[in-house]
Description:
The chain is mainly alpha-helical. The protein starts with a helix and ends with a helix. The protein has six helices and two strands; from the N terminus they run αααββααα.
Amino acid sequence: xHLTLEADYAVRIMQxxxxxxxxxxxxxxxxxxxxxxPSFTLxxxxxxxxxxxxxxxxxxxxxxxxxxxxxxxxxxxxxxxxEGTYRFSKCLQNxxxxxxxxxxxxxxxxxxxxxxDSVRVQLAQNTFRDLLGE
Length: 134
């Protein structure tokens, strides 16, 4: 399993903003520093703003800044802002969906739930401050 390209880019974009601190950075500069196309950068920034992880400013001195300090922003928040709630398997999204045809529940469900919980905990424990070594 791997992150979607969009979630990977969102982490890069958030890293750029966390490194910039309170300095407003325009989308073009973010795009360059994160090595993400300008159009994809704007799409991701909209999602990060909507999730409350990034603040946007319009006008001549506009741009973007991280909405919280790096130690307050986790990988889990950024990834879930893009992809929605992390789940190891689609079977965890809905109780009634089981392709195994077992009315008592899938024999894999408990294992998948443990894996999901473990990954979410690890992502939540890693802040951008930790990752940037500040």
